[in-house]
Design a protein that fits this description.
The protein is mainly α. The chain folds into two domains: about 110 residues, DNA polymerase, domain 1 (Orthogonal Bundle), CATH 1.10.150; about 160 residues, Intergrase catalytic core (hpI Integrase, Chain A, Orthogonal Bundle). The chain has a three-stranded antiparallel β-sheet. β2 and β3 form a beta hairpin. α2 packs across α5, α8 crosses α10 and α8 packs across α12. It is elongated.
């Protein structure tokens, strides 16, 4: 993980040394034991810091005051004060962050009763993801091939062709590409490893990089740069009212593959999800089956 996540917080009040020490220990717990992604860890730390700022406004938080500070009433009041500014998904993440933090405190301090304090996650409504139609994808791909540099062409192939997350694209390592088997080994969300297929166009671009290269992107490239490339692609697509972003392309590929007959568990494996929907559970499939069926079903 990059330098201290808690040290990169935005404009927030500084906490006293006792609480800063607790946050540092919690950060270490997320990194070494919970194996959360860097993005999730940053979000959890932000939510916990916000909670501690709120709870310490009137009373100094010390181990001896935990039982008075961490109560269901005060935790619920904190959530209610935040609810107006958060959608259901963000509020659910805040609850998860607080619950994880309380469980961490219980492991360090005996006077925290996690079972009594545990908060219930609000239900997050499921919405059908917006997607681009196959003919729109075909047109967009052709426009990118004709008018955009190889880096952007590669990004499109990774996002739509391999259904990678934007962070997985950024972290791609040339040495993890198996050109003979046409796939790449990815360290995904939750630090879970999986193998995903690569399109022929992606392989052609990646072959131009020396095996010793750390990755295919120019020095200094970050997630914001890659997201900006995606956002700019909307200008290449006429009569499009959708903002183009990485997950739009992932959702589009999943829908297109499902329409073409690829089984739901195989799509789950490709996307690196434990569940593709709230009602489906992860099913482990043989990698050879996934690669073979992907080749049969891939729209491009």
């Amino acid at each position: 993980m990059s330098p201290s996540l808690s040290s990169t917080r935005s404009q927030t009040q500084s906490l006293d040394p006792f609480l800063e020490k607790i946050i540092a220990a919690y950060e270490s717990e997320l990194e070494t034991h919970k194996r959360r992604s860097e993005h999730t860890s940053r979000s959890y730390l932000r939510h916990v810091r916000n909670l501690l700022e709120d709870l310490s406004l009137d009373t100094q938080i010390r181990e001896s005051t935990f039982s008075k500070i961490f109560t269901r009433e005060k935790l619920s009041s904190h959530l209610q004060s935040c609810a107006a500014d958060l959608d259901a998904s963000s509020l659910a993440q805040k609850v998860s962050a607080i619950n994880t933090f309380l469980k961490f405190l219980q492991s360090k301090y005996s006077n925290i009763d996690f079972a009594r304090l545990k908060l219930s996650r609000p239900k997050v409504p499921t919405r059908a993801p917006k997607i681009l139609k196959e003919d729109q994808i075909q047109f967009l791909r052709q426009q990118i091939l004709e008018s955009r540099p190889p880096n952007e062409q590669l990004l499109f192939e990774l996002l739509y062709g391999s259904a990678l997350r934007i962070s997985e694209c950024l972290d791609l390592i040339i040495g993890d590409v198996d050109f003979s088997k046409k796939h790449v080994r990815i360290l995904g969300k939750g630090r879970k490893r999986r193998i995903v297929p690569l399109t022929s166009k992606a392989l052609k671009i990646l072959e131009k990089y020396p095996k010793s290269s750390r990755g295919p992107w120019p020095p200094g490239t970050g997630v914001r740069t890659l997201r900006r490339w995606c956002s700019d692609w909307c200008h290449l697509l006429p009569e499009n009212d959708l903002k183009i972003h990485p997950h739009l392309l992932r959702h589009s590929l999943a829908s297109h593959l499902l329409k073409r007959g690829l089984k739901l568990p195989e799509i789950q494996k490709l996307l690196g999800h434990s569940r593709l929907s709230t009602t489906q559970r992860y099913t482990h499939l043989d990698l050879a089956d996934l690669l073979r069926n992907y080749d049969k079903s891939f729209p491009l």
